Amino acid sequence: AYTTQLKWIEENATTVSEIKAEITKDLHRSLPTHPMFQEKQSLDSLCRILLCYAFRNPSIGYCQSMNMIAGLLLLFMSEEESFWLLCCICQELLPEYYTKNMLGLMVDQQALQILVMEHLPLICSTIEKNKVS
Description:
Blueprint: H1 2-11, H2 13-27, H3 40-56, H4 66-76, H5 79-93, H6 103-119, H7 121-129
């Protein structure tokens, strides 16, 4: 349960400190112009979600951009619901996006590049002309 993970994090503050420092660097980059994320309470919720996920799935831990997804989820649902949906996104919907090698993301980028080449040749040539990778 989410509350059990929160309790474990509170009881193991020294173990958590390194990952928490990494997450804290990204908190203020999470939807910085949205009024909700000007409030300490919202940033604290976001931090707890990301910490719980990092310890739920230690093989992945915390990866940049998880803060953006979790932040968007918090706009529409509770902290606990946001946590569980983040788990589904990272583990079920996009399982290879949030790994050290980001294989799923690289495969999808390659597939998109092929589709753009085949179906949008003008855009493809503009991208190549401007050396966008």
